[in-house]
Amino acid sequence: MPDAGLSYRAAVSKFSALTVLVAGDFMLDRFIHGKVNRVSPEAPIPVLSHGRDNVMLGGAGNVVANVAALGGRAVPVTVIGDDEAGVQLRRLFDARRVSHDGIISSAARSTTRKTRFVAQQQQLLRFDEEVVAELTEADRRAVVAAFAAELPRADIVILSDYGKGALAGGVAAELIALCRAAGKPVLVDPKGKDYGIYRGATAVTPNRKELGEATGLPTGSDAEVEAAGRLLRETCALDFVLATRSEEGMSVVEAGRTLHMPTKARAVFDVSGAGDTVIAAFALALAAGCATDMAAEIANAAAGIVVGKPGTAQTDPDELLGSLSATDRSDGPSDRVGIARLAAAWRAEGLKVGFTNGCFDILHVGHVAQLEDAKSRCDRLVVGLNTDASVKRNKGEGRPVNNEDDRARLLLALKAVDAVVLFDEETPLDLIKAVMPDLLVKGADYTVDRVVGADFVLSRGGEVHLSPIVAGRSTTATLKKIVSLG
């Protein structure tokens, strides 16, 4: 059952204890990078001067890579070719410390390899080496046996169908039946027009185009996506449908409700493998105890990160929490190690990180104005919050009025604040050095030379901003007014 009180941070922290069984079409994604400076004299085509090669896990392999990158334990099960590409595939799993005992090499199959030629960040050509065919009877029996052997340890199952034949000819239906009998949720990334082959799965995750093709219905608007999703859910006996909608986000169609979520992507660089990220993150979140809407929010955030990266990419828990933090208002303060990783993930994403600090006891409009001013100058704002003990040392007996957990929760309820971290030291200098902000903000009752950490931030090319003070608004003034009222 979903945990209604689960926060994003608590959900993501559970990923490392979860096992995801992944079956389907595994392949290699090869990227050949170079430069184009001329057109061939032999034909009107560009000449690519070779630079470097990258080989990555593709297809269902990218689902495994995403699960592993997010901290989960991924267990791949499939049949691949007994060939050089298959050897490369196993080496890539070894590099990620993913066991591939459930992968069967067969002389009857060929390992799919897709080679993309790239110049100046632009794909020029894709060259596919593959043979699309159903499994032989011997290979089918072997993969079903391997799947059944791994199933008891799995928390959730993903079937990743790329239409290469590993799940064709009734294999998908057989694996779904095993999952249902074992009480394991199973999500399917589908292919083709006949979704009847996935009947009885927990959910399918088509994109908008695939949803339209599977149902024969238009999928341009929210209402049309909902209608198509409901038809698919009913005809295929699914618990729900998760439809990805490119730049418009995604939709979850359940029996009694439909949720439409806008995309969290800031800039789209490459959509390769985004669907693999969605189903991997969604599966982990669902297995962690998230309700479908929360799991979809997590998957949406993960997809928004990877489409901003070149090639077949993944994200990790720190990046994911960085993207989710603006939405998640249920968490208490972060720990110092976590906030340092979070700030680093934000910077890696190209975001400007700001920092300010204070007691924030009895939150008032002056506090809010300063925080909003700070956030207007950065993408993510971290607030260093004095512990109760340090407030008492600085302010005297009777302070703080509100304890540190309450003060942190109130700050996190503000739209301007992305993260809160406690500090107990005399000054926040060590915390500032851990966060390494691009922007340091204090009130205008300070001067730059008196701002703790200013030298450190400026030495790194950052900036220091003195935020205007709202006259007559302070915790001390508020307390005096309360006392005057008796």
From TrEMBL:
Keywords: ATP-binding, Carbohydrate metabolism, Kinase, Multifunctional enzyme, Nucleotide-binding, Nucleotidyltransferase, Transferase. Gene3D superfamilies: 3.40.1190.20, HUPs. Pathway: Nucleotide-sugar biosynthesis; ADP-L-glycero-beta-D-manno-heptose biosynthesis; ADP-L-glycero-beta-D-manno-heptose from D-glycero-beta-D-manno-heptose 7-phosphate: step 3/4; Nucleotide-sugar biosynthesis; ADP-L-glycero-beta-D-manno-heptose biosynthesis; ADP-L-glycero-beta-D-manno-heptose from D-glycero-beta-D-manno-heptose 7-phosphate: step 1/4; Bacterial outer membrane biogenesis; LPS core biosynthesis. The keyword Signal does not apply. It holds the Pfam family PfkB. The active site is at D276. GO terms for molecular function: ATP binding; heptose 7-phosphate kinase activity; heptose-1-phosphate adenylyltransferase activity; phosphotransferase activity, alcohol group as acceptor. One of its GO terms (cellular component) is cytosol. It comes from the Bacteria. Residues 1-327 are annotated as: Ribokinase. Residues 355-486 are annotated as: Cytidylyltransferase. Residues 355-449 form the Cytidyltransferase-like domain. PROSITE patterns: PFKB_KINASES_2. ATP binds at N207, R208, K209, E210. It is an enzyme of class 2 (transferase). Its EC number is 2.7.1.167, 2.7.7.70. PANTHER family: BIFUNCTIONAL PROTEIN HLDE. Homodimer. Catalyzes the ADP transfer from ATP to D-glycero-beta-D-manno-heptose 1-phosphate, yielding ADP-D-glycero-beta-D-manno-heptose. This is Bifunctional protein HldE. It comes from Pleomorphomonas diazotrophica.
